[in-house]
Structure formats: C-alpha cells, structure tokens
Design the sequence.
C-alpha cells in the first residue's frame, strides 16, 4: 500500500514538474508517457528499498550510488526532453 501510494504521488509530482519546466522552457519536449513516469518512480522506490534493507552497505557507498543514479537519471531526462 505504501509503495503504490508513494509511486502515485511521485508520478503526480513529476508530471507537474515537467509542466512547469515547459512553461519556463517552451522548446522542451514534454510528451512523456504516464508509464515512463511510473517506471521512473518505481525505480526510486526500489533504490531506497535496497539501501534501507542492506546490512552491508556503508554511508560512503550510499552517497556514491545516489550520486551515480542522479547523474545517470539527469542525463536520461536531458535526452528525453531535448527538442
């Protein structure tokens, strides 16, 4: 129940963010499928779950993996909304 609610909330936030970005940068491509938003949000939930449930992960590794994923995700979004 928590997972589904979290994903739905993140989808709504992501769509609103893209809408706001389009107002500021009208040249960006904003036709992103709802399923893609769900998959992206679900991935975040999985990442958080992996970090929380792992007993062998240290603080530095958490920082590294989050930094890597943020860079990876940012590059992907940049490509996706590029006109």
Sequence:
């Amino acid at each position: 129940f928590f997972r589904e609610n979290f994903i739905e909330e993140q989808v709504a936030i992501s769509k609103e963010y893209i809408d706001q970005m389009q107002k500021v940068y009208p040249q960006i491509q904003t036709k992103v499928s709802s399923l893609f938003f769900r998959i992206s949000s679900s991935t975040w939930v999985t990442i958080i779950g992996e970090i929380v449930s792992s007993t062998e992960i240290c603080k530095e590794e958490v920082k590294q993996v989050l930094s890597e994923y943020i860079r990876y995700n940012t590059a992907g979004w940049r490509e996706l909304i590029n006109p």
